[in-house]
Amino acid sequence: MASAGRLTDYDLARSGTPTPCKAVPSGGRLKLWEIGGGFHCSILGTCLATPDLKALARKLHLTPPAHATDYEIHGYFVQQATQEGSVARALQRLLDHRFEGALRRVSRATEAAALDALWEDFKASGRIAGGYWALLTHRHVPNDLRARVFGEVHMMSHLQGAAVRDHASRADQLERENSELRDRLARIGRSAQEAQAAVDERDRRVAILSERLTVAEAAGTRTEPVRTSADRLERKLAKRERSLVGARTRARDLEAEVDRLNREISALRHKQQPQSQAPLPVDDLSPLLPPQVAGGACRLLYVGGRPGLVPHLRDVAERRQASFEHHDGGKEETLQRIDDLVERADAVLCPVDCISHSACLRVKHLCQRHSKLFLPLKSASRSCFARALMELGLKPPPAPQTGDRMVSG
Known about the structure:
Blueprint: H1 9-13, H2 40-47, H3 50-59, H4 70-81, H5 86-98, H6 100-108, H7 112-125, H8 128-137, H9 143-219, H10 224-272, E1 299-303, H11 310-318, E2 323-327, H12 337-344, E3 347-351, H13 357-370, E4 373-377, H14 382-391
Helix pairs in contact: 2-4, 6-8, 7-8, 8-9, 9-10, 11-14, 12-13
């Protein structure tokens, strides 16, 4: 990514250590290349993902080598961030545009205590990247607070790495168990097929013997050996039928277990994906349902959505014996009220196409804090809401049978 617009292996190799900043002009904020102390690696690693850097490279007409790794691309941008140039200025514009809200909040806080409280709020709300960029670039932020913020973000990266390793280990274990259960299911399926073949053979022989018995009775020559053979076949039939019923029961149990493990693997893989990806479908959240929700009445909280659909959604929920609470996601109601609603609810449903990003994140973190089930819905439609209730085990009561209706007169 030098003057010729080409990221070479030499550029990647020499980008591991940032150069210290030199002159720092006056102003309210530090530019990216004016930040010293080796913060650039953590800034880019925390505030920008690898796809962001690759997109910026394409925008700047920079072409990395075909075999360049994500680490090498990251290292190149870290090196470029330490010195003023087109790449550093592009990074500055991207970070300022993405986190302009956090920059405004930090610029308004002047006291050290207010800045410290603001950083705690950034952490609690999950907006660590924006808070990190704002606190490191505003000049009025004390150096001790800037150093503490850097240390906490550094340790968060270690904790995240440990969590990813744990999830990967758990997913690997579940996949092995899944493979073993599939093998067992295949063996049981073969046993069931053999049992069914034996039953079919038995039916064929019984039919033949029944035909012979009919002929013997018609001829008046019914004999004891025929009855003995038929009794023996009937006993074998009963035994085979019991074995077949047992095999089918075990097969159903194992199929349910395999399905549960597949959903749990999908849920664990979702936890390892970046939060910017699309919301997890409701089908993949079924292994996370709390026992008090599945199959029984529960308290539902619906955040966001279209106001005109709320009465219809309430009717859908109440017909499934579930209580329904609604919050508009901050349009007219205060966001502080969500805390109490989440704490009282058993499950929280949130249509991602009809709610602000900040309100959705707040609801998600409240659900994690109170160990509540959080279901992001693809749309605010009534059908999507009904499918989510079906996944929760909340089915509508059966329609009355024709014979059960009362007849007047």
